[in-house]
Amino acid sequence: MPDTPFQQPIGMPFIELQTIDSTNNYALSQIHAGLAQHGLVIFSHEQTTGKGQRGKKWASANHAGIAISIVIDPGTMHLSQQFQLSACTAVTLQRFFGKYAGKETKIKWPNDLYWKDRKAGGILIESGVGSKEAGGGNTEDGGGRTAAGGRRIESGVSRWQWAVIGIGVNINQTSFPGELPNPVSLKQITGKNYDTIELAKELCSLFNDEFEKLVNSRFEEIYAYYLSHLYKINEKVKLRKDNRVFETMVKSVSPGGRLIVEHGIEEEFDFGSVEWLINQ
Predict the structure, then answer these.
(1) Which residues, in sequence order, are CB contacts of 107 under 8 Å at separation 6+?
(2) What is the edge-to-edge ordering of all strands in the sheet holding 275-277?
(3) In 59-137, which residue ranges form alpha helices assigned H by DSSP?
(4) Three-class DSSP category at 199
């Protein structure tokens, strides 16, 4: 892949909102209206119905966290590289949070941010797909293998037009809804209050650095870092697949984004096919 063609850094422009239902929804509306460009970041001090993985919500209390969406032009990247963008974002998040929270900061496959056994942040990537034969559709992140409705994306037929990276990080929040099993914030870890706008811009700068590695064919650096900071690597965990609960050892994540585990036999799982059972 040639040197990055993108002149606009991540975070330029940076739109600050007081409250919104979902920063991803706002970013998507800007794209569909033809008003978005690569590097656009939407920040909201409060997010009422933010999107999480697998249909879950990610709400952020007023001035208590980072809720941003980053608009990305994938350029010459292919749909088969969707996990690479996911890993790039997860590595950025680990580097950012780990600077303040220390070495207990980990990447939980596929791209959650964990501190010890507690969730500090998450990522949701939504992509626009164009076809040579028809219009476009949406994909939701993970390994990114299917489009909306589960339609398989065939390489050479569909084109990756854009991506919106939604990131939520708990910063100053000290109370959480009871249905959240294991949340944690930066303030709970360090005892300090933070300027969320300042931290969000720092996060954008770090992402810009990692994204440049990605588009300059340096994914192996990102991938190595991802694996070296993988949550529970070489440790036993409990997973649930459908009605089956089993204990297994986390061995790795494949370059395509599949979780590799071992329990007598080696198995690989796509994003969304298994559920982690933390502290159970």
Answers:
(1) 90, 91, 93, 94, 113, 114, 226, 229, 230, 231
(2) 265-269, 259-263, 244-253, 236-241, 275-277
(3) 82-101
(4) helix
Domain spans, the chain: 14-228, 236-277
Output the CATH code of domain 236-277: 2.30.30
| Each residue's pLDDT tens digit, 190-225 | 999 999 999 999 999 999 999 999 999 999 999 999
Token pair of 211 as six digits: 């994204």
Tally Cβ neighbours within 10 Å of residue 7.
8
Fold of 14-228: BirA Bifunctional Protein; domain 2 (3.30.930)
Burial 127-160 (b: 16+ CB within 10 A, else e): bbbeeeeeebbebbbbbbbbbeeeeebeeeebeb
Q: How far is 71 from 24, CA to CA, in rounded Å?
A: 9
